[in-house]
Amino acid sequence: MRTFARNWIGLPDVPGARRWVWVAVIDAVGTGMRIPVTVIYLTVVVQLPATLVGVGLGVAALAGTVCAPAAGALIDRFGPKPVVIACFLAAATGYFGYLAIVDWVSFLVVAVIAEIAEHSARPAKQALVASMVTAEQRVPMMAFQRSVRNIGFGLGGLTSAALLTLNTDAGYYAVLAGDAVSFLVAAALVTGIHVARKPAPPAKDTGAPAGFREVLADRRYVALAVLNTLVMTHVTALNVGVPLWVSQHTSAPPGLVGVLFAMNTALVVLLQVRLTKGVSRAGQTPPVYVRAAAAFALAAAGYWAAALTGNTLALVVVLLVVAVLAHTAAELYGAVGEWTVSVNLAPEHLRGRYLSLFSISFSAHQAIGPVLVILLITQAPDLAWFVLAAVLGAGCLASAWLARGAQEPAEPKEANSTA
């Protein structure tokens, strides 16, 4: 497995990488277990009204978004490792709390705790990876992390499916408890990662307001973060748009969606690291963004064509497979662009604040993206995929233009990490 990981998937040969890989896999297994069953648990087992569940999850996500900048300040003050551990422990507390929900108020409390922990963990984990490796190794390491997380998501989904075959409340409790335990195990593993390099002292005032003023004054970075909300269209288009499109606008059987998603996951695992070759600096990302836009335009054409072929099942399947292949390429290239500009353009002494700002783009897209995709596919199917391609294309091409010639902040002397 180690040889396969290094030679094919592309595990960077750096100290501490294996331990961090286990952290990523265990974290993803727990999340993969929980995501498919959370809403079902809340509505069927706890018996909360679906509308209140939606409101509660929305409020919790908003709380997580609002608190993410505070996590950035903590990362810059104490370093990413203790913040990652604290976030994992808080997430474990939140999801253990799901087992004790009795009404909407108790649900809201634990959901807010869990969402704040998860939103804050994203920039902290990125900053920790950045501090573990050299500048040239960052993008391959993040790509490998994404590959193994996809493996973990798949294993988690299979585990939850097996537990729910019990057809009792105990199956739901086991899934949620398993997710909470995964955060505890991940936190324990992170304690064994030694980061030799300490956070660099700020060049300016260390106060949080001054630090964020400096971040917001970086217009290029702020613009790239805003544009990433558009680039992330590939995520919602796959997770929400493809199942809806296949079921409502093609003659393909619903079971094909599972096959398409499995193909997407396998390709991400096998190709994500390989597509990072030659990209280690922000100035190298413009071609990557252009490829993402072109690939998604091809995918959009494939989805649209699949709806025009009527009951010719073989042709529908071929077109959908080609579309998902192109969609996956857009996803892979888009991710490379995102990692490279978000981490490499962030000066080390403010990296936590910079990454927490960039992470808001994910939260914003999670709020806007599903609504846009569902409205387009249900209300304007003839234009849906072309509008989505235009949105993503605009985000990618504008990002490519901004990244061209971007000057990265000077790196302090590198120090290796061991585990």
Task: Give a summary of the structure in a few sentences.
By secondary structure, the chain is mainly α.
Describe the structure.
This is MFS transporter. It comes from Acrocarpospora corrugata. The chain crosses the membrane at residues 20-44, 51-75, 172-196, 221-246, 252-276, 288-306, 312-333, 354-377, 383-403. InterPro entries: MFS, MFS_trans_sf, MFS_Transporters. By secondary structure, the protein is mainly α. The protein folds into 2 domains: 13-199, Growth Hormone, Chain: A; 206-408, Up-down Bundle (Growth Hormone, Chain: A). It is built from 16 helices and 2 strands. The protein has a two-stranded antiparallel ribbon. The chain starts with a helix and ends with a strand.
Extended strand count:
2
Q: If you average the pLDDT, what whole number results?
A: 86
Radius of gyration: 21 Å
The major pleated sheet works out as: 2 strands, antiparallel
Low-confidence runs of at least 5 consecutive residues? 202-209, 414-419
Q: What is the N-to-C succession of helices and strands? A: HHHHHHHHEHHHHHHHHE
Distance between the termini: 19 Å
State the secondary-structure class.
mainly alpha
* Proper CATH architecture of the largest domain: Up-down Bundle
Q: What fraction of residues sit in β-strands?
A: under 5%
- Kindly give the count of domains: 2
Number of helices: 16
Annotated CATH topology of the largest domain: Growth Hormone, Chain: A
Helix content: over 70%
